[in-house]
Amino acid sequence: MNIKVFLIYLLLMAVSTYLIRAIPFVLVKRQIENTFVRSFLHYIPYAVLTAMTVPAIFVATSSIISATVGFIVAVILALKNKSLTTVALFSCLAVYVTELIIGFF
């Protein structure tokens, strides 16, 4: 890809990202009173983050089994309200140990 095409793509992505963030501020002038709309808007970041993260979890390792083990460990620790560092550390450790076990068979 040459630099001109890259810069055009970069500019288009920057403009589209800015517009997505700026349009709600321009269109909505007052506080949103509707509880359904407020709750819908409240959960959008979680839904988007989940939609981007969960599929990536299952292709990040060399085996779907180790990815599933790491995911299950992360969910269990998160449900027990452990810190983000603890969840990340133990899920990575679970993936590593699972990969070692799978590698021996």
Can you put this structure into words, describing what you see?
This protein is mainly alpha-helical and 105 residues long. It has a domain at 61-105. Helix content is 81%, strand content 0%. The chain is built from four helices and no strands. It has helices at 3-27, 35-57, 64-79, 84-104. Helix 3 (64-79) runs antiparallel to helix 4 (84-104).
Secondary-structure element string = HHHH
Taking the alpha carbons of the first and last residues, their distance comes to 43 Å
Rough shape? flat
Uncertain ranges: none
Q: Helix count?
A: 4
Strand content: under 5%
How many extended strands? 0
Give the biggest sheet. none
Computed structural class: mainly alpha
Radius of gyration (Å)? 20 Å
Mean pLDDT figure: 90
Residue share in helix: over 70%
Brief summary:
With 105 residues, the protein is mainly α. Helix content is 81%, strand content 0%. The longest helix has 25 residues, at 3-27.
Task: List strands and helices in order, with pairings.
Blueprint: H1 3-27, H2 35-57, H3 64-79, H4 84-104
Descriptive terms for the model:
mainly alpha, flat, 0% strand, 105 residues
